[in-house]
Each structure stands twice: as C-alpha cells, then as structure tokens.
C-alpha cells in the first residue's frame, strides 16, 4: 500500500533526525559525493545500501543492465554533472550476477523495445562467443556475460571525452568495475580500475 510508504518515510526521517539532528539541514546546504555509481535498475541492487553510504555520499545512475552507451543523453548528462560540477573522484560501474537484462540479451525471444537497449550486450556476447559457448550452463554463461558487460562499460566510460578532458586537466578520477552477487551481498572487483591514459592503454589497448 502506498500509504504505508508515506508512514515509512515519516518514521525514517524521524529516526535520521533522532540519531543526527543536523542530518537534513546539512544536506540542504550541499551534496558532496565522491562516487558516481552506474548500476542496474534491479530492485535487489540498492546502491547506497550495498556500500553503506548515506544520502549525499553517492551520485547514482541506474538503468537496465548498467549500461554506459556513448550516445545516451541521460547517462552523458549524469556523467558530465558528476565530473564537472560535483568533481567526483571515482566512477563505479556495478553489474550483478543473474542480471535479467543480460539474460534477455542472449535469449532468442522477442522482448520488444528493450532488445534495442540491450544490443550493446549482444555485441559483447558475439565478441566473446567462443568463451561463452564453452560455459557449462546458461546460468554460467549469463554470469560471465555480466562480468564482460561491466568490463565493456568501464571501457566506454574510460574513452568518454568528458573523462579524457578531466584527466588532461589533472583532475583525479578513477573508473572501477564491480559485479555484485545478489546471493551473498558481496561485490567482486574485476580489477580493471583505470586512473589515467597509461592504465587505459595497458588494460584495453586504446
Ligand atoms: Co540487472
């Protein structure tokens, strides 16, 4: 019931103020997040909760299958604001195992409009088809593609002109790729952090 949500909200705000009387007045003055989270819309992957950060500490962009498509105005606007105005220090691209979007991308059934959105993942799957074909099950294939998709999106972010200009101007900015497990609540670092052009060259050859 929606009315329950309003009651939840009242209780939450009361509890926040009880623990920290200045909590909301501080947030009104400014937000000062050091992190941009690019994650999946999946309701089981709540950005702030997973990394135990309060409101004001994490700038969040979520879409189906945590994509960073170079032509997507929504993502680009978020990235530009995060880098230019908020001066965030880290971009976290966070996928999750068992992602329904990733799974749908390699199913042969027609899902309508979402198939268009998911087409970059199909490209990743095609590029890595031999490795994926060798997976022991469809679940294993989906999970590996979740990882490969995160790596591909980190590459997208690391080649974005907004990021390049920030690096050229000496702004400290690192891009990281994680995959979250809904089964145990833990993130796995894909070890593809990119902090500068030399690291990008070493990791992606570009
Ligand atoms: Co998902």
Automatic annotation (TrEMBL):
Its cofactor is Zn(2+). Pfam families: Pro_CA. The keyword S-adenosyl-L-methionine does not apply. SUPFAM superfamilies: beta-carbonic anhydrase, cab. CDD domains: beta_CA_cladeA (cd00883). It comes from the Bacteria. It catalyses: hydrogencarbonate + H(+) = CO2 + H2O. Its EC number is 4.2.1.1. Keywords: Lyase, Metal-binding, Zinc. InterPro entries: Carbonic_anhydrase, Carbonic_anhydrase_CS, Carbonic_anhydrase_sf. Reversible hydration of carbon dioxide. Belongs to the beta-class carbonic anhydrase family. PANTHER family: CARBONIC ANHYDRASE. This is Carbonic anhydrase. It comes from Asticcacaulis aquaticus. The lineage of its organism: Bacteria, Pseudomonadati, Pseudomonadota, Alphaproteobacteria, Caulobacterales.
């Amino acid at each position: 019931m929606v009315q329950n949500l309003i009651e939840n909200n009242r209780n939450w705000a009361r509890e926040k103020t009880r623990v920290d009387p200045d909590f909301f007045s501080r947030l009104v003055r400014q937000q000062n997040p050091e992190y941009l989270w690019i994650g999946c819309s999946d309701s089981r992957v709540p950005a702030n909760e997973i990394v135990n950060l309060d409101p004001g500490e994490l700038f969040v962009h979520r879409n189906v299958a945590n994509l960073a498509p170079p032509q997507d105005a929504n993502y680009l606007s978020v990235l530009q604001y995060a880098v230019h105005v908020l001066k965030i220090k880290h971009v976290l691209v966070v996928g999750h195992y068992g992602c329904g979007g990733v799974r749908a991308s390699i199913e042969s059934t027609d899902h309508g409009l979402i198939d268009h959105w998911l087409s970059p993942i199909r490209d990743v799957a095609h590029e890595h088809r031999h490795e994926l074909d060798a997976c022991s099950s469809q679940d294993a294939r989906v999970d590996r593609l979740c990882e490969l998709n995160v790596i591909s999106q980190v590459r997208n972010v690391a080649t974005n002109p907004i990021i390049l200009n920030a690096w050229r101007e000496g702004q400290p900015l690192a891009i990281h790729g994680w995959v979250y497990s809904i089964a145990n609540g833990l993130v796995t670092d894909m070890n593809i952090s990119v902090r500068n052009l030399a690291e990008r060259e070493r990791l992606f050859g570009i």
